[in-house]
Every structure is written in structure tokens, then in C-alpha cells.
Amino acid sequence: MKTTPKHDERMANMTFASVYPHYVAKVEKKGRTKEELHQVIEWLTGFDEKQLQKLIDEKVTFETFFEKAKLNLNAHLIKGVICGYRVEEIENPLTQKVRYLDKLVDELAKGKAMEKILRKK
């Protein structure tokens, strides 16, 4: 699925710190916890809570965030539509990774079982 260069650039330059509070609010509003959110983020990126806080404090962009991440080998199993885009068809690698994270947060907020979110077979 095609995204525009402008959209991809906007995603790359957005800071993780600016989006993180929205992730927390979204999952907590639906009865999930910040700890569960951190578990999901760690599964995708390899960042533990301490590393995550450091990235938030440094106000890194999503580009830097995902450059530093060790993407889970099963991330390609994340499929579905988020923000009008089918994640498995997004051509820009960085935009796809950001949407992977959005999709996992969305699944957590919708009450999906953790083992399914973390793509455990």
C-alpha cells in the first residue's frame, strides 16, 4: 500500500515521546495497564522500561526509535488495517514499523489476549 512521501516524512520526524502518552491513555481507558503496554513495546522493539524512558526523555524521533530497536523476528506476522492502511502492504519500512506499533497498541486496547498480540503460536 502506498503512502505519500510527505506522510512518511511526517512519521519519521514525529517524536515517540509525543505519541506515547496517547498510547497509555488509549490502553488504560479500555482497562489495560501501562505494564501491558510496555510488554507489547518490548516484544516489538526489544526496549525494556529503562531504555524506553531514556528514549522518551531524549525525545527521539520515530526514525531514531526504530533505528535503535531490535525488531522482533515475528513482527511480519502483524497484519490488518490501522489508520486506513493495511500494515502488511505498507512499502516504506519505517512507516510500516510505526504502524506495527500502532496495531499492537490497538489490539491491546481492544482486549485481545496477550499471547495473540505477541504472536505466540
From TrEMBL:
Domain of life per record: Bacteria
This protein is called DUF2200 domain-containing protein
